[in-house]
Write a structure and sequence with these properties.
The chain is α/β, with parallel strands linked by helices and about 350 residues long. The protein has two domains: about 180 residues, Rossmann fold; about 160 residues, 3-Layer(aba) Sandwich (Rossmann fold). The chain has 15 helices and 13 strands. A seven-stranded parallel β-sheet has the order 3-2-1-4-5-6-7. Strand 9, helix 9 and strand 10 form a beta-alpha-beta unit. Helix 8 crosses helix 13 and helix 11 crosses helix 14. The longest helix has 19 residues.
């Protein structure tokens, strides 16, 4: 199939990934290409050049509009509207069989556009005002919506989902996250370092539990980092940087437990299954889809409760490493995910007359 993959343009679709959305788009493009599809990635122009890139904007907008300035910014909205309007027009004229839309932009889901090129839209976030009503108005025979968890499905459609909406769990390549049967007794945390990811709670819990902790990820919110995280570093608590996948997998494999600390209605938690593939049980705050995704591979604490999370660390470390790995192999592999994507692409194709 000829597939247009329309990505979010906040960050480049390239390693090291800034977050789950960038990882999702990169691995989707890579996996579909490996299966013989003709894939064009519509994304920021500074994304990974291994892909055929048709730029939505010349460079990712975090560079053009720094994080502290772009929330609600009229110039940014106009910049993105122009980029996505032109990209959607090129898709309509490009002979594509299907669009996989990861953009979180309203233009891609307009019925007049999905009537031209069948579209699968993956929603990676809880409902929010700027997109919520456009999603509800987007139901057409040529448009299928996916969410990453049952929890997210209920958040978007509390009164029941439309027929053309389904749960599509994220998937990873287990070979890229090698299983390690024994760890060194330490904990690891990974993600965007920003308040809604709860980095400070991971540090507090590790200190209470007396467990060494290494943090990995992009410092997205410098003010939060300097005020609430950096002062807590030292001794057995350190920052390990923002790493490419292979280096991050090696670091995870050395540890014995993963800390997952969402402070928002987390739709999935891709970093959790990456850690689980390495054999790490998870000590998690029970927010969003955490329990749904982690299941028997973790132990849970109430939201925002660092003391309870400290207790969960010890309980999680008693879980045998094969339990998290087996859960990933059973539910969250890349092949399972790509099979489901291909099935959806065929499902939205028009029925021959």
């Amino acid at each position: 199939m000829r597939i247009a993959l329309l990505a979010h343009a906040r960050q480049p679709i390239a390693q090291p990934f800034m977050g789950g959305m960038e990882s999702h788009s990169w691995y989707l493009a890579d996996g579909l290409m490996a299966r013989g599809h003709d894939v064009v990635l519509f994304a920021a122009g500074d994304s990974d050049p291994r892909f055929a890139i048709d730029p939505v904007v010349d460079e990712h907008y975090e560079r053009t509009f720094p994080w502290a300035e772009h929330r609600g910014s009229a110039p940014l909205i106009a910049h993105l509207d122009a980029g996505y309007a032109a990209a959607c027009d090129r898709i309509a004229e490009g002979g594509f069989d299907v669009v996989h839309n990861n953009s979180l932009h309203r233009f891609a889901i307009e019925p007049r556009r999905t009537a031209v090129v069948p579209t699968v839209t993956s929603l990676h976030v809880p409902p929010y005002d700027a997109l919520h009503w456009f999603v509800k108005a987007s139901a057409t025979p040529g448009h299928h919506l996916t969410v990453t968890s049952e929890r997210q499905m209920a958040a978007w459609w509390p009164d029941g989902a439309p027929p053309r909406a389904s749960v599509l769990h994220n998937g990873i390549d287990p070979a890229a996250w090698p299983f390690v049967a024994t760890g060194d007794g330490s904990a690891v945390w990974c993600g965007r370092i920003t308040p809604n990811k709860g980095t400070h709670l991971a540090v507090a819990a590790a200190r209470m539990a007396g467990v060494p902790l290494t943090l990995f990820g992009q410092i997205e919110d410098p003010d939060y980092w300097h005020a609430q995280v950096e002062p807590l570093l030292g001794g057995d608590i350190r920052y390990g940087g923002h790493l490419h996948g292979a280096a991050l997998a090696a670091e995870m494999g050395r540890a014995s437990v993963f800390l997952f600390t969402p402070c928002w209605d987390e739709p999935f938690g891709l970093v959790a299954i990456e850690a689980m593939a390495c054999g790490l049980p998870v000590a998690a705050l029970d927010m969003g889809a955490a329990r749904e995704v982690i299941g028997e591979a973790g132990r849970f604490a109430p939201a925002n409760d660092g003391a309870a999370l400290a207790e969960a660390i010890g309980a999680a470390m008693a879980i045998p490493p094969h339990v998290p790995r087996d859960r990933v192999d059973r539910l969250f592999t890349r092949d399972r995910w790509l099979d489901a994507c291909e099935a959806l692409y065929h499902q939205v194709q028009p029925v021959p007359a």
